[in-house]
Amino acid sequence: MMRKYNTDYSGLVARTWRVKPATASHIDEIADTMGVAPSRLVDYLLRLALTEVEAGKWKIRRRPVQYAIDEDDLD
Question: How many CB atoms lie within 10 A of CB 32?
Answer without folding.
Answer: 15
